[in-house]
């Protein structure tokens, strides 16, 4: 996969910390930023999954077999 260039403006303190991390790991600043962004995206996806699970659990509590429709009733 060919990577695309992205220009990002960083707060000086964040930039300093990213550069330090890159030097410590002997990788490029770009690699550090890409790793951090990937982790943030994964975290957001996990938080969304957790929220949807809570929503589903609440819906499940109120489920009533008597009020539910059969497959044929829904899809004919």
Care to describe what's here?
This protein has 76 residues and is mainly α. The protein has a domain at 12-63. The protein is built from three helices and no strands. The protein has helices spanning 12-25, 29-61, 71-75. Helix 1 (12-25) crosses helix 2 (29-61). The radius of gyration is 23 Å and the shape is elongated. The mean pLDDT is 94.
List the uncertain runs.
none
Tally of strands: 0
Distance between the termini: 46 Å
Strand content: under 5%
Radius of gyration: 23 Å
Basic shape: elongated
H/E element sequence: HHH
Q: Approximately how much helix is present in the residues?
A: 55-70%
List the helices and strands and how they pair.
Elements: H1 12-25, H2 29-61, H3 71-75
Helix pairs in contact: 1-2
Q: What would a concise description of this structure say?
A:
With 76 residues, the chain is mostly helical. The chain has helices at residues 12-25, 29-61, 71-75.
